[in-house]
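Quick one: structure for this chain?
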Amino acid sequence: MLRFLICSFTLVLLYPTAIDLVGFPQIAADLNATEAQLHIAFSVYLAGMASTMLFAGKIADSVGRKSVAITGAVIFAGASLFHLR
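Got it. Here's what it folds into:
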């Protein structure tokens, strides 16, 4: 179980770390922010992601993983479409 948790944690962190940490200088320049501000935002993002997984995990255990995954995908798609407007 511990091996599974470590692998899951690594996979969850791999994507945002690969994108955000490499692009921080350019993101900071585009947003007129300091890199320190971006590091704080990234830390808050990871904390939010971790706490959300605690709740989503409990919900997934009670109602099923498929419905939670579909609901998450629909929310993501809706937010993406809303952002484009």
